[in-house]
Amino acid sequence: MTARTLNLDDSLYNYLLDVSLRETPLLRRLRDETQALPMARWQVAPEQGQFLALLVKLTGARRLLEVGTFTGYSALCMAAALPDDGSLICCDIPGEYNATARRYWQEAGLAECIDLRLAPALQTLAQLEQQGQGGCFDLIFIDADKANYPAYLESALRLLRNGGLAVFDNTLWSGRVLEENPASEDTRAIQALNRALKDDSRVDLSLLPLGDGLTLCRKK
Q: pLDDT tens digit string along 153-175?
């Protein structure tokens, strides 16, 4: 028994995957293909993708928004968990990996419910607000440029319905959040987000040591 979260060594982590991961062959193929890319570290861990899918089902989410999509693994996990009338808007910038995401979504039969918008994410989020979609989203997953995390929080809170969920990835940042005077703007932004969320009365909060740190914020 322990009163704190366990540290997972390789053996225990592999056990976790062995007894709980239900990754489809298509998702595994996408993950393997992504691992061959120079930016492979951008991809979520498979257990994170499965957790996001569970959140979609637990919350009964129908309208999803993703900030930072890369090769589409997390988007595919979440879209597969949506009801038939559900939809997902993905925000990313143009890159060769966009075609990989679209190819796998098409193969999964989910391309029709995923809308990939290629532009700076803050621009896309502002457009959604201008179109009157504030308060319309059930769940927003944020895994993009870390320097804009505090700005993404504000956008997310305007776009989420009351009771909706914002999920931030990389909030433990491989331990770099412990740096006292970080040179990295990304590290400073994650530190600022984490500190601000601790006392933010607009949300209910939990930071999970899943993957590189996953923070759940429920809009009150």
A: 999 999 999 999 999 999 999 99
